[in-house]
Structure formats: structure tokens, C-alpha cells
Write a sequence for this structure.
């Protein structure tokens, strides 16, 4: 999945999103975790100094475009996948999990630029104390320290 990316040791953070299509396609959670592992392995190979950050699975039960009871069923699966990936990534070095803290609202949607492999939320993933902005700031500072330390040797 990351094979098309150029190798670049200067990348500090790789942020990605996964899961919604797998949940709606009824992929099993073990197969999905394996696919995420393969993606993370490929990203770490291409970006050996990077911290890999995966966005949490969106709360599909909050998506008003999905009819009930499908919304509740997919929402339940999304919460299960989200818990599993949070725990799974917690066991991997240089990997972080970033929960989605905001419920979707009318006019805010995500799209996926498949040609570049870039998931984009139209207005960001959230942002209170300890949220995405704090994580991004902390990861950015860790990357700056890593570069300073590498340059000192």
C-alpha cells in the first residue's frame, strides 16, 4: 500500500485514516488489523524516522445520511474497530492513535484523494486540550528533538 511512496528519512509524522470502507464491506477485524499492520510496516520502511499516527474510526452511528438501523449496526462495528486499533497500535513502537473527538455535522465531510493517498477532513479532526492539536504539537517537538540529536552525533 505504501510502495508508491518515495523513501524519505526527513518525514517526521505520517497521519492516515482507515476503516470506514472495511466496516461497510463487513471485513473482519483481524483481517483489517493485519492490513493496517502491513500499511504501517510499509510507511515505516519508506519513512524510517517518522512517527505513524492513525486517526480513530469515525462514529458511523452519528452519520445522518445512513438510515436506521444500518446507522446503529455500522456505528457499533465502528466503535469495536476503533477500540481494537487503539489497543493494537498501543503495542507498536513509533505508532500513535488519534481519536476523533468531534461528531460530524451537516456540511462537514471527509474525502479521500486516492491518487496521493491523502485522507482529508474538511475542517480538522477536533481540537480541545489534549486533542489533535496537542498531539501534533508534541509530535512536532519530538521530531525537532530527534533531528537536533541526530545532528549532534
Amino acid at each position: 500500500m505504501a510502495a508508491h511512496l518515495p523513501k524519505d528519512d526527513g518525514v517526521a509524522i505520517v497521519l492516515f485514516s482507515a476503516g470506514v470502507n472495511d466496516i461497510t464491506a463487513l471485513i473482519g477485524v483481524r483481517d483489517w488489523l493485519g492490513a493496517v499492520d502491513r500499511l504501517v510496516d510499509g510507511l515505516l520502511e519508506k519513512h524510517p524516522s517518522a512517527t505513524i499516527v492513525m486517526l480513530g474510526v469515525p462514529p458511523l452511528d452519528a452519520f445522518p445520511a445512513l438510515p436506521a438501523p444500518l446507522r446503529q449496526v455500522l456505528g457499533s462495528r465502528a466503535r469495536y474497530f476503533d477500540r481494537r486499533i487503539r489497543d493494537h497500535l498501543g503495542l507498536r513502537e513509533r505508532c500513535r492513535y488519534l481519536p476523533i473527538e468531534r461528531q460530524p455535522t451537516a456540511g462537514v465531510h471527509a474525502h479521500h484523494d486516492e491518487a496521493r493517498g491523502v485522507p482529508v477532513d474538511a475542517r480538522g479532526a477536533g481540537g480541545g486540550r489534549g486533542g489533535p492539536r496537542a498531539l501534533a504539537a508534541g509530535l512536532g517537538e519530538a521530531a525537532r528533538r530527534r533531528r537536533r540529536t541526530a545532528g549532534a552525533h
Observations:
- The longest helix spans residues 132-152.
- The helical segments are 20-24, 29-46, 70-89, 132-152.
- Confidence is low (pLDDT under 50) at residues 108-130.
